[in-house]
Write a structure and sequence with these properties.
heterodimer, A: alpha+beta, Rossmann fold, OB fold (Dihydrolipoamide Acetyltransferase, E2P), six-stranded mixed beta sheet, five-stranded antiparallel beta sheet, 26% helix, B: 279 residues, mainly alpha, MetI-like fold, 14 helices, globular, transmembrane (chain B), transport (chain B), cell membrane (chain B)
């Protein structure tokens, strides 16, 4: 069990509104990711769900129960923090067991749950150590273990991978995905990294300036962004935006094409241009092209290609791959 | 490493300055202790000489231990100092936690108000304090001294500790809240251990003026049973005749308890307790 419903959540600090009416429904067992740029309110929203911040108005319901005035410890949640937030003076085992101990669970049950969580995360050799004696990755696993031990209705993750190096980040990401499958628990995860969001989520919530821009599965957001912000935020490298007038499209103010939906040729094509920079990544080649008609384009080619700066090349968009946006930045009628 | 750092002249100059300062700072202490072991004549004949077999004398210490209840004075000083430090640390840390952790109307103003005492000496209020103590029937009790010293130490304690408590990770406190720790448990079990170095600093800064104070013991608690060491030593200083042996011996003795307290606190100054808590 673990469903969540947010109804018109608002949060203001003084006169400054951080959350401007958030409505959201999370079903039991879903992996939902809040993603957005820094300062968009995603962490505040997570902390409001946790009860660490009180919403100025609106209601938070966990399993259909209003929890607006319930203490964080009684909400049936567990949270994993970016900075791990382990208790420095307690051993790994005590760190994991503290929540249950506070709740007055019997000793045998605490032991059993710690053993189970430690097994899942291969933390057994470290149970007697203190956080200072662990590496960053191990500390974050302990923090995740501490959450698992509580057997919460909702797991909340606040940028849990931001402090880890790139290799560990991928490993821990896999670990979290595996945990979600084996625990079948509802998880809410905050990140500013759209790759994390795309790889982990069942459902992504894109936030910007305290408002939800779009909610959908990763592929929905990729294929049918509802507005300019989502189109630009999801996908790497970023989508190309072209002034609609330049393409003679009266209905659309802006036209977006993803870099991977543009073909490049030396012989001929729709837009002639000069290569200004090339990034060879092995699996991909990213070409930056200064075109005569539509400005600078980013083109992503799969595999290796022998383009170099100052080469002349012709770009051609894949038919039906254009996203058209009106003057307010909303999509007019999207591509596939 | 940069050239400037390895320059012998530069390092030498720095060391010379530090050594000179150390000598200047330690000289009075050395003089007090050295002369306390000399006979009266030797003190006046050669004040700077160290005690030799001819000039060595314990007459000062004998006088101190015989005359008056010096052990009692020590006890009074210790009780007043230790209890005051404990109260200053407890209430100072609590106020600092509230100021740094909770958002409420007038937070900044309250912080400034509490810090005001650093700038305004408490002695300005001596007359009012004395009147208050008389009215409360607390004159000639150690309680009077403890109350005054607690008030005197709190502003600095609140100021220093609230700055330090701001540096304690919010995530850690929030993790405690999610694990069901009460605000008191978060304060005592998570925050206090992490600001121990700051607590030790505050303790040292609070301790020295209390131990050395003559003013308030003289005014609030001059009775024989409540005299502190500094006040007790004054009996050897007369208007016309001063028993220098006794004064110097009493002062030498008075250094040691405070030295012990200092050593205890300075051990806490060692950092690294927070390592591994965050990042």
């Amino acid at each position: 069990m673990g469903s969540l419903e947010l109804k018109s959540i608002r949060k203001a600090y003084g006169g400054h509104e951080v959350l401007k009416g958030i409505d959201l429904e999370v079903k039991d067992g879903e992996f939902v990711i809040f993603v957005g740029p820094s300062g968009c309110g995603k962490s505040t929203l997570l902390r409001t769900i946790a009860g660490l911040e009180d919403a100025t108005s609106g209601s938070v319901q966990i399993d259909g129960e209003e929890v607006g005035h319930v203490a964080p410890a009684k909400r049936g949640i567990a949270m994993v923090f970016q900075s791990y937030a382990l208790y420095p003076h307690l051993t790994v085992k005590d760190n994991m067991g503290l929540g249950l101990k506070q709740a007055g669970a019997p000793k045998a049950e605490i032991e059993e749950r710690i053993a189970k969580a430690a097994g899942m995360l291969s933390l057994e050799p470290y149970l007697a150590r203190r956080p200072a004696e662990l590496s960053g990755g191990q500390r974050q696993r302990v923090a995740i273990g501490r959450a698992i031990v509580r057997e919460p209705k909702l797991f909340l993750f606040d940028e849990p991978l931001s402090n880890l190096d790139a290799a560990l980040r991928v490993n821990t990401r896999l670990e979290i995905a595996r945990l979600h499958r084996s625990l079948k628990a509802t998880m809410i995860y905050v990140t500013h990294d759209q790759v994390e969001a795309m790889t982990l989520a069942d459902k992504i919530v894109v936030l910007n300036a305290g408002q939800i821009e779009q909610v959908g599965s990763p592929m929905e957001l990729y294929n049918r962004p509802a507005n300019l912000f989502v189109a630009g935020f999801i996908g790497s490298p970023q989508m190309n935006f072209i002034d609609g007038a330049k393409l003679g499209d009266g209905a659309a103010k802006t036209i977006g094409i993803r870099p991977e939906h543009i073909g490049l040729s030396r012989d001929g094509g729709e837009w002639k241009g000069k290569v200004i920079h090339v990034e060879h990544l092995g699996a991909d080649t990213i070409v930056y092209l200064e075109t005569e008609t539509v400005g600078t384009l980013t083109v992503r080619l799969f595999g290796e290609h022998r383009y170099a700066a100052d080469d002349v090349a012709y770009a051609t968009p894949v038919i039906g791959s254009m996203h058209r946006f009106d003057t307010d930045g909303r999509v007019v009628n999207s591509g596939p | 490493m940069s050239k400037a750092r390895t320059s012998i002249v530069r390092t030498g100059a720095v060391h010379a300055a530090l050594i000179a300062y150390t000598l200047v700072a330690l000289f009075p202490v050395f003089l007090t202790i050295a002369n306390s072991f000399k006979s009266r004549n030797a003190i006046f004949r050669e004040p700077l000489a160290i005690p030799t077999p001819e000039t060595f004398s314990l007459i000062g210490y004998e006088t101190v231990l015989k005359q008056g209840d010096f052990l009692g004075y020590f006890q009074n000083s210790l009780v007043v100092t230790v209890v005051s430090i404990a109260l200053v640390l407890l209430f100072g840390a609590m106020a600092a936690f509230a100021l740094s952790e909770y958002r409420f109307r007038g937070n900044t103003l309250m912080g400034l108000y509490l810090a005001l005492g650093i700038m305004i000496p408490i002695r300005l209020g001596t007359v009012a304090i004395l009147q208050g103590m008389v009215a409360a029937n607390l004159v000639n009790t150690l309680t009077a001294l403890i109350l005054v010293y607690t008030a005197q130490g709190l502003p600095l304690a609140v100021f220093i500790l609230s700055e330090f408590m701001r540096t304690v990770s919010d995530d850690l406190k929030n993790a405690g809240r999610i694990d069901g720790l009460s605000e008191y448990a978060i304060f005592f079990r998570l925050v206090l251990p992490l600001v121990r170095p700051a607590m030790a600093t505050v303790a040292v800064f609070t301790m020295i003026p209390i131990w050395n104070d003559l003013w308030f013991p003289l005014i609030l608690a001059p009775a024989e049973t409540t005299k502190t060491v500094t006040l007790g030593s004054q009996i050897f200083i007369g208007q016309f005749v001063t028993n220098w042996n006794a004064v110097l011996s009493a002062l030498s003795l008075a250094i040691f308890p405070v030295l012990v307290l200092y050593v205890i606190f300075s051990r806490q100054l060692i950092r690294g307790i927070t390592a591994g808590a965050v990042k």
